[in-house]
Amino acid sequence: MKTVSDELFRLIKSLTKSEKGYFKKFAARNTSGAKKNYIVLFDAIDKLADYDEDILKEKLDDILYKQLPVYKVYLFNLILKSLHNYGSFENAESKLNELISNIRILKSKALYKEAIKYLKKAKEIANKYYKSKYVLDLLIIERNILIQFPDKNVLENRKRIYEEQKELTKKLDKYFEYSWLSDRVVIYVEQKGDFSGEERKKEIEKIICHPFIADERNADDYLTKTYYYHTHLFYNLAQEKLENVFNILKKEIEMMDSNKHMIEENPKNYIQALINYLLFSNYTKKRHVTRETLVKLNKVRKRWENKLPPSTIIQAKFHIANTEMLIYRKSLEIAKGKAAAKRIAQELNTYQKEVPAQAKAVLLSNLCSFYFTIGDIENALKYNNMLLNDSSLSFKSDVINLAKLFQLVLHLELGNYDLLEYLSQSVYRAIKESGMMSEAQEVLFHFFKKALGYNEKELHEAYDELHYKLKKLKDEPASKSLFVMFDFISWAESKAKNEKLYTVMMRKKR
Length: 510
Hints:
Layout: H1 7-14, H2 17-30, H3 35-46, H4 53-59, H5 62-66, H6 68-86, H7 92-108, H8 112-128, H9 132-148, H10 154-192, H11 198-208, H12 211-214, H13 222-238, H14 242-257, H15 260-265, H16 267-283, H17 287-304, H18 310-331, H19 334-351, H20 357-373, H21 377-389, H22 397-413, H23 417-434, H24 439-451, H25 456-472, H26 477-485, H27 488-496, H28 501-509
Helix pairs in contact: 1-6, 2-3, 2-6, 7-8, 7-9, 8-9, 9-10, 10-13, 13-14, 14-16, 16-17, 16-18, 18-19, 18-20, 19-20, 20-21, 20-22, 21-22, 22-23, 24-25, 25-27, 27-28
């Protein structure tokens, strides 16, 4: 495959079905005799799975292919123009851009009364959807109109605009502070998975004690409440307080449901909140909520399928897949789990690079855990290797560290003792250096080191001891997060009792 610029390919692939349909109508109206060539090129690129100009050449005639660089640039800009027109009826920002353009035209024609009518309408929309930047622009325009078209209340009106500007800057300062506090907590959790390091822990506690985050009453509108919920959500997530996470998500979705216009404006955020709610209803064993949310999420996804970017729909698809695998692994529904895993494997192959890295990392880990639980070591190893060999997933350090540890378990199960001896040392160093070593991991590494020299009887006794030690650590915070990701305690028990892991987990389930 040639390494060439693929911006046009990525732009076309980002379009929704309705956006693609609109573009073709727009191109037919707004291009001259070459319009057919633009649509031919658009369709040819749209049909490609990956951008490859050798394959593209076969789909184009010689004249079009020889002028391909020129056609690509023009087509790229033509798509952007069509999206600008299409978007005029799609969201608040597009409506505001159109209104502000009309206001400026009317102002330039000295039609000030008419301009003010549009300005009032624009301010209502901007305030309704928390578009502070637009409110600021509109206040500046309103001041300029007032100067050019003064009335008897000019001083009072000018003072009103000044007071609105001052109040808006205070709001903006508050929004920026909330977003910065929230972003820091989210980034810590996304990158590190917990706050086990003392320095990180102090920084996070300082954020949580900030008046904006400590007291919910300070979050007095939709935007600040969103930041407030996100900050507490990730803070509780890092500490494995799953019940708290579930309750925060519930409150966030209730807030969204009470502000339908914000869902219409940005359905992507609503879908993401439902995905998280689905996940944590499952973690907290609220089965009826899980199934209700799964039905609701699929309905919402289908409703917005043609109006949202494919990337958002793909993200929803794979987050739903993640929850399915968790449900089937914990409920031990083998037949349903196998069917879902087979379908997910096909979808991973179909979408490949389009799958969000965060979802892909967790999904590969869940597939590995599911197959290991049902005794399919070959497939477990396959998905664990896929996770470890994908450099784009290395940012998810908690999942990667689990995969490295799980690699040792898999090779022990397969009897690859020579490989295990080398791996156990390198994996131990890697996790130790990351600063994320829990007591349970220390116990497991000690077991792996000793297990290499044991005979069958000694190994059986070692598993019994491992089970005892891990059970003692089941409530230790850092170790608890490891056991949530995979049930090492049941695994050790199954080996000590010479039973299948599935059998042990099924007995506990009863």
